[in-house]
Amino acid sequence: MLQDPTVSDILVTTPRLVYVERHGKLHRTPVEFKDNAHLLRIIEKIVSRVGRRVDESSPLVDARLPDGSRVNAVIPPVAVDGPLLSIRRFRRDPIQAEELVRNLSLTEGMLQVAQACVKARLNIIISGGTGAGKTTLLNVLSGYIPEDERIVTIEDAAELQLRQTHVARMEARPPNIEGQGAIRIRQLVVNALRMRPDRIVVGEVRSEEALDMLQAMNTGHDGSLTTIHANSPRDAIGRLEVMVGMANANMGVRSIRQQVASAVDLFIQIARFSDGSRRITHLTECVGMEGDQVTTQDIFVFDKTGVREDGRVLGRFRPTGIRPKFYERLKSAGIQLATSVFQTAVEIH
Predict the structure, then answer these.
(1) DSSP letter assigned to residue 252
(2) In this structure, are residues 140 and 100 in contact, taking their beta carbons and an 8 Å threshold?
(3) Is 120 helix (H, G, I), strand (E, B) or coil?
(4) Which residue from 324, 319, 249, 308 is spatially nearest to 108, judged by alpha carbons?
(5) What is the chain's percent helix, strand, coil content, to nearest 5?
(6) pLDDT, tens digit, for every residue of 52-106?
(7) CA 319 to CA 298: how far, in whole Å?
(8) What is the DSSP string of 265-292?
(9) How buried is 264 (Cβ within 10 angstroms: 0-12 exposed, 13-18 middle, 19+ buried)?
């Protein structure tokens, strides 16, 4: 299964139940392990190779295979019916922007806007659910960062595949058996500021590091990119508020929202649909504050209109007709977008 380029996830639920995900859909495979002990031996073999361990005292483990695949294993007593193994695979050749347009994940116009925003050093947050394609999109967008800039990447498990030469990569570290020595993403974000970065790319913000990320975006590190788990741009703002609250900075809600409003320029929302397709559903500009609320405006949205008999999701990519406020910033960065970009709708039949 690891040799099959169409497989994106391998999920072992019990020794007799092994599923794979292909093209966004789950399929059961004929593969079986002998019993729980056999599956446990395989898990131990995988994690010991990368210097991690899994036993009763630390029954959860995250590791990375030599090919970059991400492994998560859970063993009893935490796993009730026997060991659980999940492997998230990554393509050897990173997906290209043209492929996303071909697959109708977004339109040519949306891609042009996103590309211009990266080049003009806008701060972008990609939000979406699990398996929606956030990291894939982050890889594609980071490809538009100019070659002459220094990029510092920070991840839980290194999975970004940046094509530029000058990339300084850092990865968080879990605690050892005694519970010591953990290096958290928050420490790495703070450290990145001392490394003279032109851009900071954080694989995903999940916790209190959101505060440091926003402060970095606010203190001249323009053009930063990150992803967040959220179901809509509005939801992403709420999640950021909660995560900044975790940092115990004793900040009021209003000042947290001001941080968000002044740090983030663009939210890109990506979703996975019932037919396995992944589409960008919102390109939403963060405009500023109005009273106590962060104000946003949608520039592009995807409207789902129905489902075909064969299960294919139908809909249309629709520009809202609003010319974004950052249009002037794009112009001052020497990027001229045709206004027709903000007016062309695309139907999915």
Answers:
(1) -
(2) yes
(3) coil
(4) 319
(5) 30, 30, 40
(6) 788 888 899 888 788 778 899 999 999 998 999 999 887 777 788 999 999 999 9
(7) 8
(8) -EEEEEEE-TTS-EEEEEEEEEEEEETT
(9) buried
